[in-house]
Amino acid sequence: MLAVILQARIDSDRLKAKSLLPLGGKPLVFRVMEALNRVPADIRILACPEDSISSFSSLAEEAGFRILAGPKEDVLRRYCLAVRSFGVTRFIRATGDNPFVFVDAAVKINAEATAMNADYSGYSGLPYGAGVESVCAQALLRAEAANTSAYEREHVCPYLYSHPEMFRLHRPFAPLFWQDSEEEGKGIRLTVDTQEDYDRAQELYNELDNNEDRYTGQMIIKRYMEIFLK
């Protein structure tokens, strides 16, 4: 069973309750789910901490996502709970602060991962906040059983790609038309982690609202560069 598993939480150190901030009249986390609904999957799961359930339940239902609660800091275990609870064999991992995820890139990297039977797949070179990871569920369960660090448990996949001798990895550069051509930190930033990110996201969303272009990597890059990198 192929799943989309989205991790999200309410509290944020740099931008308070960012998941619930409005973006085009809906909470940011709903916009992320809305985009991920364009990625083919058998099931979609919002994996969140217990303290976020009450805030996210109705949004998840509206977006067609199942909701599951797990540890706040041990996000690796949260994903493994989702895998076990719903019988997932492969999943696309996404995070709740990326409303401009490249749907077309997500579909392509997962197709490549499936064809190669890769344990972990993810593009390099995408703009920050544009990508997802395609992960074999059994590989993640092996990572959970290992003596993983707090960092690896919080960030879910580092144990996999840090052990190429144990796992089948597929980490190609993204096609040029999806790449951020600028120096890291100075180019396209699509994640929402600060007030500046949120202000920029609002402006970009308004430019792309009610338009299929906001699910397409090339068009998101094009509009971002027209607005912010003139």
Strand content: 15-25%
Give the overall silhouette: globular
In DSSP terms, counting alpha (H) and pi (I) runs of 4 or more, how many helices? Answer: 9
Compute the average pLDDT. Answer: 94
Strand order within the widest sheet? 5-4-1-6-8-7-9
Q: Please give the number of β-strands.
A: 9
Radius of gyration: 17 Å
The count of domains is: 1
Poorly predicted runs are none
Following the backbone from N to C, one meets helices and strands in this order, namely EEEHEHEHEHEEHHHEHH
Largest sheet: 7 strands, mixed
SS-based class: alpha/beta
Q: What's the CATH topology name?
A: Spore Coat Polysaccharide Biosynthesis Protein SpsA, Chain A
> Which CATH class applies here?
Alpha Beta
Give the proportion of residues in helices.
25-40%
In quaternary terms, these chains amount to single chain
What layout of secondary structure does this protein have?
Layout lengths: L1 E6 L14 E2 L2 E2 H9 L6 E7 L3 H11 L2 E5 L4 H12 L3 E6 L7 H14 L3 E2 L11 E4 H9 L4 H6 L2 H4 L7 E2 L24 H14 L8 H12 L2
Parallel strand pairs: 1-4, 1-6, 4-5, 7-9
Antiparallel strand pairs: 2-3, 6-8, 7-8
Provide a compact summary of the structure.
The protein is an alpha/beta fold and 230 residues long. The chain has helices at residues 28-36, 53-63, 75-86, 103-116, 137-145, 150-155, 158-161, 195-208, 217-228; strands spanning 2-7, 22-23, 26-27, 43-49, 66-70, 90-95, 120-121, 133-136, 169-170.
Describe the structure.
The structure is a single chain. By secondary structure, the chain is α/β, with parallel strands linked by helices. It has one domain: Spore Coat Polysaccharide Biosynthesis Protein SpsA, Chain A. The chain is 40% helix and 16% strand. It contains nine helices and nine strands. The strands form two sheets. Strands 5-4-1-6-8-7-9 form a seven-stranded mixed β-sheet, sandwiched between helices. A two-stranded antiparallel ribbon has the order 2-3. Helix 2 (53-63) links the parallel strand 4 and strand 5 (66-70). It is globular, with a radius of gyration of 17 Å. It starts with a strand and ends with a helix.
